């Protein structure tokens, strides 16, 4: 009986490893399919769509069909949401190059501005895709919800950063896992933490209700 239970658990673990690897490969293929620059955003949105469904108990969905459908649905909006964040990242990079060249009289002010913008960038980066696949709103509202959720749940936000950093460090140590695990595993953990944050946010909300996305997402 114990041996059968162990085999069942081992099978379940291997099944989930296979699922995560499959979605990670799909993310790479559909990113390339969109010529990298235009493919990474909808591919990431599709990946978060899959992990959201898994976390909500829908583990038997057709992964490829769901991924492809989400890719088409989110192609335009995901790119519209990601490109301003990418632009912010570029601006931060440029500002960092000149940060230590500013006069001492304004250094700490510039450092504060840089740190604030970096925090905003990280919150948007972690929350924008969970917000996109979980809610239905106008494009600009996704930024507001992402920022509000991230600022309101600092522990969950820091946990996202730490787990993603650890996965990145593990991938650097073992590059062979890059095609199979890091992106989807990060998505799974981030989506799980984001769902917890959404629940807390909705309990606190006293303004107009946030409309959930359709179940197909």
Structure description:
This protein has helices at residues 2-33, 40-55, 63-99, 104-134, 139-152, 154-173, 182-204. The termini are far apart. The protein is globular and about 70 Å long. With 217 residues, it is an all-alpha fold.
Provide the gyration radius in Å.
19 Å
Mean pLDDT: 92
Query: How do the helices and strands follow one another from N- to C-terminus?
Result: HHHHHHH
- The counted number of beta strands is 0
Helix content range: over 70%
What kind of sheet is the major sheet?
Answer: none
The percent range for strand residues is under 5%
Distance between the termini: 40 Å
User: Number of helical runs?
Assistant: 7
Q: Which class do the helix and strand fractions yield?
A: mainly alpha
Shape: globular
Unreliable runs: none
Compact description:
By secondary structure, this protein is mainly alpha-helical.
How do the helices and strands line up, and which of them pair or pack?
Layout (H helix, E strand, L loop, with lengths): L1 H32 L6 H16 L7 H37 L4 H31 L4 H14 L1 H20 L8 H23 L13
């Amino acid at each position: 009986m114990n041996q059968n239970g162990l085999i069942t658990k081992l099978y379940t673990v291997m099944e989930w490893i296979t699922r995560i690897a499959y979605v990670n490969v799909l993310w790479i293929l559909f990113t390339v399919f969109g010529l990298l620059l235009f493919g990474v955003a909808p591919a990431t949105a599709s990946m978060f769509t899959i992990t959201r469904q898994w976390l909500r108990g829908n583990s038997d969905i057709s992964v490829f069909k769901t991924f492809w459908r989400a890719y088409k649905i989110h192609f335009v909006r995901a790119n519209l949401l990601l490109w301003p964040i990418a632009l912010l990242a570029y601006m931060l990079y440029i500002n960092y190059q000149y940060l230590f060249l500013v006069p001492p009289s304004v250094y700490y002010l510039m450092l504060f501005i840089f740190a604030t913008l970096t925090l905003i960038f990280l919150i948007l980066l972690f929350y924008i895709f969970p917000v996109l696949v979980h809610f239905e709103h106008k494009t600009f509202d996704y930024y507001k919800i992402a920022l509000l959720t991230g600022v309101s749940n600092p522990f969950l936000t820091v946990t996202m950063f730490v787990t993603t950093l650890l996965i990145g460090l593990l991938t650097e140590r073992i590059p062979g896992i890059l095609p199979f695990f890091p992106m989807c595993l990060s998505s799974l953990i981030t989506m799980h933490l984001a769902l917890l944050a959404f629940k807390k946010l909705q309990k606190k909300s006293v303004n107009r209700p946030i409309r959930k996305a359709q179940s197909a997402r």
